[in-house]
Amino acid sequence: MTNPPAASVEDHPPTGPSSTAADPAVPDPAAPDAVVPDAVVPGVAPGGAVPPSLLRNRSYMLLMTGMTAESLGAGVALFAVPLVAYGITGSVVQAGVVAAVGQLGALLATLPAGVVADRVDRRRLITVAAGVGAALWATVALAAALGSLTAWHLAAVLFGASVVGALVDPATSGAFRSVVPVPQLPTALAAVQGRDAVASLLAGPLGGVLYAVAHAVPLAAAAIGHLATAVCTGFVREPLNGDVAAARATRPAEALREGLRFVWSVPLFRALLGLFVVINVAFGGLMVGINLELVRTGTAPLLIGLVDLAVGLGVLVGAVLAPRLVARLRAGVLVVGSLGTLAAGAVAMAALNTYVGYVLLLPPALLLVPAANACLSGYAAAITPPQLQGRLSSVLGLTGLAAGPLVPLVGSGLLERFGLGTALVVLAGLLVVTVAVLSTVRSLWRVGTPDTWADDAAALAASGVVPGEPAPAGPGR
């Protein structure tokens, strides 16, 4: 659901953990690095000119179109995966294990993927990786159509697809940062939230309808979505990263250490790494428990889809409100307020523990999450140098990916051992405690509105923590 800085509500990655991210998500996106003179701040139009509307930004629109198709296709497929896994295994626990195995690929690949995204042509990386993803999903769709799909085959494809996602996510983050001017980052990232929300709105009901037609059809949708990403990215003309020769001069292991040191050197990033893992596990596990309970009790697929529809509705409305909220509220108020609302919604769902309660409470619970994600993602992208964007995305994305294998195991395990009522109480309580701890993070309260982010980026560069950019000499130095 909620991702750390640089990911979105179910990033993918997504950095997405709950797939939602609900990759809770968190959590991307400056004029092309390769063509901006050193004296010009990336993402700021020369001479201070007002950048064109995002709707007129051809490269941005192509990237968004491809990723929207992928989000919708993946959402439809991932809606069907628990149903397919349960149908194959006949056990909610084994279905949870299949999903957990699928998440391990991204967990193992995410850090190397960030290094790769900063060292190779991002357009080519996205195109090739998305093409591989399309082929993987096509195999599982074909096997399902022929009635020969096994749990191991499904788990292997989910594993491979999560590796593909680990490669595409940081490359896409860097690509957005290369084509979206810094002043437009909050709006662009709110649009990403809206994109995922629309996908969630459509994926549940559409997945239910397609699953009822044939179990293979929603799985094929993921293949089509990945193919669309590959094609649209291939039509982007401008460079999606700068001079990779400099990046390649550093050995991969050292490049990874540089990324880790940079993220760890920023107090806000350091503080959020662990807290967002817990938040993703708690809310993602809650959603998994609800969905599996509905499956186990024989709820119609279309009604299960309405739960995801409620999630998408809350995120979509929140994405519309996000740019205004980010422009007016400081990060501490926005993030603690949004996650506090989420925790309150989880407590209310645990108290009611009814289908109608889930559907009615999810939209308001998630309403402020897109603004929090846009704020944190935009701030992280704005203060991070272009050559570190891929590694930033992958390192911070670990908060979602580390939660990925735990989410289905925690949700299905609590459901199987204690029943849904107790599972919801435990997970809602975990959310409340984590948000309380988050409210004590001082560095979060120091982040201002977007008009102050350029000053923070300059201060960070002057601090000497950016690899290859030592701090300038000054008094006392």
What is the fold's blueprint, element by element?
Blueprint: H1 58-89, H2 92-119, H3 122-146, H4 151-179, H5 185-213, H6 216-234, H7 244-248, H8 252-265, H9 267-296, H10 301-328, H11 331-352, H12 355-366, H13 369-383, H14 389-418, H15 420-438, H16 442-445, H17 453-462
Helix pairs in contact: 1-2, 1-4, 1-5, 1-6, 2-4, 2-8, 2-14, 3-4, 3-6, 4-14, 5-10, 5-13, 8-14, 9-14, 9-15, 10-12, 10-13, 11-12, 11-13, 11-15, 14-15
Describe the protein's architecture and organization.
- By secondary structure, this protein is mainly alpha-helical.
- The protein is 74% helix and 0% strand.
- It contains 17 helices and no strands.
- The protein has helices spanning 58-89, 92-119, 122-146, 151-179, 185-213, 216-234, 244-248, 252-265, 267-296, 301-328, 331-352, 355-366, 369-383, 389-418, 420-438, 442-445, 453-462.
- Helix 1 (58-89) runs antiparallel to helix 6 (216-234).
- The protein is globular.
Measured distance between first and last alpha carbons: 44 Å
Radius of gyration: 21 Å
Shape: globular
Bin the strand percentage: under 5%
Structural class: mainly alpha
- The chain-level mean pLDDT equals 79
> Uncertain segments of ≥5 residues (pLDDT<50)?
1-48, 470-477
Helix content: over 70%
Largest sheet: none
How many strand units?
0
Number of helices: 17
Order of helices and strands: HHHHHHHHHHHHHHHHH
Overview in brief:
The chain has 477 residues and is mainly alpha-helical. Helix content is 74%, strand content 0%.
What distinguishing features does this structure have?
about 475 residues; disordered N terminus; 17 helices; single chain; about 0% strand; globular; mainly alpha
